[in-house]
Amino acid sequence: MRGGLLGIEGLTRDEIQAILDRARDFQPKPGQGFRKLDLLRGRMVVNLFFEASTRTRTSFEIAAKCLGADAVSINAQASSVSKGESLVDTLNTLAAMRPDAIIMRHAASGAPHFLQRHLDTPIINAGDGTHEHPTQALLDARTILDRGASLEDLRVAIIGDIAHSRVARSDAYLLSKFGAQIVLCGPASLLPHELKYIAPGITLTTNLDDAIRGADVIMMLRVQLERQHESAFPASEYFQFYGLRLEHLRLAKPDVIVMHPGPINRGREISSEVADSQRSVILNQVENGIAVRMAVLERVLGGSATH
Amino acid sequence: MAALLIKNGRVIDPASGHDALADLLIEDGVIAGVGANVSKQGAEILDATGLIVAPGFIDMHVHLREPGFEHAETIESGSRAAAAGGFTSIAPMPNTSPVNDNATVTSYIVEKARRRAVVNVWPIGAITKGSEGEELAAIGSMVNAGAVAISDDGRPVMNARVMRRAMEFACGFNIPVINHCEDLHLSAGGDMHEGLESVRLGLRGIPGCSEDVMVARDILLAEVTGARYHVAHISAKHSVEMVAFAKMRGLGVTAETTPHHFAIADTDMIPYDSNFKMKPPLRTQGDIEAITAGVMSGAIDAIATDHAPHPGSEKMQEFEKCPFGILGLETALGVSLERLLHSRRIGLMRLVELFTTGPARILSIPRGTLAQGAAADVTIFSLDREWTYDVNKSFSKSRNSPFHGKTFRGGPVATIVNGWTVWRV
Q: Do A114 and B189 touch (CB under 8 A)?
């Protein structure tokens, strides 16, 4: 299958299921590391990150190497971009070096979608502005499925700065396709009412308790201060009204899991006690990130070498 | 100059209410007469059988980018695009470099247009110095040099007191004050209409209320000052309603809308394609309905293009980095025919009015009529000729149009300015 991966919104349930199933094959056995395979030997991917990122970039790099592909990482902030080169020219230059795929993170929503219209090399979106972060949603789904059989009818609370969250959008698209009930929660100024209509099965609330009540999964989001261009809420009150603390977990299902895409800010959106609790699967998410990205790279780069 | 006899067209002149098959004779750059079976020895004949013959179209809102941004457009190239769109008069906004905020710049534009433009150019001067919204520009001198209105278009006048003073001063020169209505605090950083689409695409929104609050403010100020006040590129439902309300109260309030604002909704955008990025942004189907209703009822007085050329290098970027604005001159009539006439929202007389007497009255310019003795500006167009817009063949120096590749039914056929045929299909 050719073509990159720009977002979850345009994928079918079957396509997503195939990636999630394949990711399970790549998960390490208990107590072991990731197996080194050579499914993508001779292939090359470029990691092009225009925004600071440690975990996603490293995760893609490890995923590529685990499959035997060569991975080149470029910190775009320190490259020709700072010399005034346009995004299209930067991408065309890299594409001329014939990588098999470009993995890209950019602060502008839609940057990879815009570029893909002008570029044959498949692009894998590693996060575009406040739009989508498809591999995050895939690893979140893999992590939820590791604990249960199905996503259907699960009650998933996504809490925090929804307006600026590409994770919330991708997660909502994915979970909706599988019939989950999604509750989006945050201060009203970070929770545009139109969110209710971006996919079926979404409800909104500004009340943290209401969001958590009966939840199977709680996903906390970081407050993206770097994307806020104004004070949309009183910062000093955030933890009081939207920070996840141990007492909240009593409202959820007994086997609730707590997730966070990271990096976490202890004491801002999540208390240390919750982050370190038995209910937290934050580190499982990180591990699944590699397995899921292996499945995505395999899908995008296809089977045998083509050139 | 040889006389020109336009034969057998359907002559429509909203100024007189004329709508009949007739011949139109032009002599010495003026309308010599309209009537059945006119003949004139030695006149050049233009057969307009099956075509509409109307007063020359007026676009009261364009950006010609000269002086200062000649890589995007010039007075000459913009005027050629206008002619190809059936426009015989255009009014360039002052956001050039330098800003047209004094008589020297106004005179430069007038003089350059006299030598290079193929259509009439009626400059609009700035309201404030540098269009910075603080100190009033040299308004009276600009009017004396040829400016027909004032506007800080591209930027709103944010300070209500400055707006009030501008309106008061403009009264003394009988010119309209045109405002780009956008409360910058409400629209800050937005790239498209605030709604489901912006939320879905993760783009920052420009809410309809950012336009509404300024239209409301300005209407109140127009009442206080008695000024002639004009809303540029009206795009939001409540703004249309408020203009209708102001008219009901007898205020000197007018409004224009653009073809793209009644033709394209935010949901029709190609995601992250900057050919769909402009201010005000493409709004919802509900706003389109309100604008169309305003065009039908008379709340909206004119169709203007807000022709805003930008070179490819600026439009080929991340959506949030791209400048606002699209071309409009060459597609305005085709879009308007499709959305207003063929869809039976308005009749032909009203359509012509929106392009002629409507803007002529607002700007108080002696155009927009086929009365005997009037300047011979004539637009000849077809209601059924199929044609496809190829932006790469545009007369504009820029290529930023969302209508590239679109097929239209009906459009301009010939454009005559002061008796000269400046463009033919």
A: no
